[in-house]
Amino acid sequence: MSNRPWRARIAVAALTALLVSGCSGGSPRPAPTPSPVGTSAGPSVPAVPPASDPAGRAAALVATLSDEDLVGQVLMPYAYGDSATKVSAGSAAGNQALAGVDTPADMIAKYRLGGLILVGFSADDPTKGNQETTNVDNPKQVHELTTGLRTAAGRLAAGPAPLLIGTDQEYGVVTRVTDGVTVLPSALAAGAAGDPKLTEAAWRAAGAELAAMGINIDFAPVADVLATRSTVIGSRSYGADPKQAATQVGGAVRGLQAAGVAATLKHFPGHGHSADDSHQDLPVLTQSAAALQSGAWPPFTAGMDAGAMAVMSGHLDARAIDPGTPATFSHKLLTDVLRGQLGFKGVVITDGMNMPPAKRWAPGEAAVRALNAGNDLILMTPNVGQAYDGLLAALRGGSLPRTRLVEAVTRVLTMKFQLAQVPAAQMSTLNTPEHRAAADALAAAAVTVLRGSCGAAVRGPVTVTSSGGRDGTRATLTAALTAAGVQVKPSGGTIVHLVGYGDGAKDLRPDAAVTVAMDTPYVLADAKSPTLLATYSSSRASMTGLAAVLAGKARPGGRSPVTVPGLPATTCRT
């Protein structure tokens, strides 16, 4: 683990904070302002470590925080509204039910929050079960929202450490901000391209745009190996081969964090090893501990080696390690395995606590259990006030050890100060030609031919059809084909048929000359078309890459990162 020196710094900071705070009392302090260290020698102000020492700054700051401030720093809820201070009546009602306040800024102030997650809906979204609202629309609105949130957080005692503002910008089916930004192809597309350098370059562009909008932690990349036909993970994974997925995860982490945005490896210990959906129930991992170590964890360890600042714990029952206990609440998995065996010293974040496996306990008890298991941040609690009060009561009652809470806050603050060292890009960098070129290169390299000639042009003119609800994607491909010199007709041409997330055999066309899978390619096993292609994504970049292949201007060099029965990984020979 010698190639992970920043973890050692965090550990030292945590130990320093524990020693400094061990003699301080647990009595409440009414105002969210820094308190002097020490209880008998009179007020003293410790020297502030330099900006080049994030761990030292975290240890110094954590020693000044009250119980209320400490508890607030481990909470990262969602909120209603697209502005920090001005929300609709409906959003105010949502915030009242969630936290007893009207606005996101009020929520930050009342509960002294360490972070906030920006949530939103998208059409093909397997995570929509816990997306209670949406507060992202366009980059300008997001930037104004994050600026307002940081202004509110700057007034807190922990204000010197910037507020964590996160979102699920995975690209592919889980993408929160879609308009006015560079949209990458899905993780599975990157796995098909098989070039970590392309992945890193694309994620560096994406990270710069997130940072420009004021987002400093992304709940990505998905490090789950697609060992089953999991519809909830699906194309969010880099593929079925743990070693190949590991190289891709490492590239994504390096690119994202080079731009000053924390990467989050998810969902430990490996959601792709169950086909069940944790947004509905508690998936069971039946594999042995050895099988998980060799088949599920290589992308996580590769991400850690690349410097990933965070890992998300999953609501998963790993029977071989801690049967019956979701990993989110498992000390064996998070403390003994993730920290002890795998050596991770960064921030561990829960998956959404508003998901069914976490709601078996009341919000306060669930938050305490999650902290005691080894999590450092509580994400998306279903009731902020109850979680806050439960943590505070447990701290003062002794069921949440002060050392555990201080350790968690120290890790969170260290990450915040690390992120603050990288200047954010300007809004003018959004969707630039350079960034689009990085996305285009990755998407073009992903296009795979699983049946038919390698790189042969489609016989024109072409008619583009699709399964229901994909008018926008058809229009994008039509424009890209036209730009590539292919005539497109409303009907009567050679049929190119598109299928995507959630589609099955019933959505195929037996008369299509070409069938294209824009999500996982499993559906192609039932397709009768003489030519079968996969883009794994319906992004503009993916449709541009597909058009080049259909026009005969590009060779489809991708290889399917999952096995499709009866079909090769590619018909193109390297």
From TrEMBL:
* Start and end residues of each Glycoside hydrolase family 3 N-terminal domain: 103-414
PROSITE patterns per record: GLYCOSYL_HYDROL_F3, PROKAR_LIPOPROTEIN
**Gene Ontology molecular functions:** beta-N-acetylhexosaminidase activity
InterPro entries the record matches? GH, Glyco_hydro_3_AS, Glyco_hydro_3_C_sf, Glyco_hydro_3_N, Glyco_hydro_3_N_sf, NagZ_Beta-hexosaminidase
Keyword presence, Iron-sulfur: no
Record key words, sorted: Glycosidase, Hydrolase, Signal
Annotated EC: 3.2.1.52
Protein family according to the UniProt entry: Belongs to the glycosyl hydrolase 3 family.
**Protein name in UniProt:** beta-N-acetylhexosaminidase
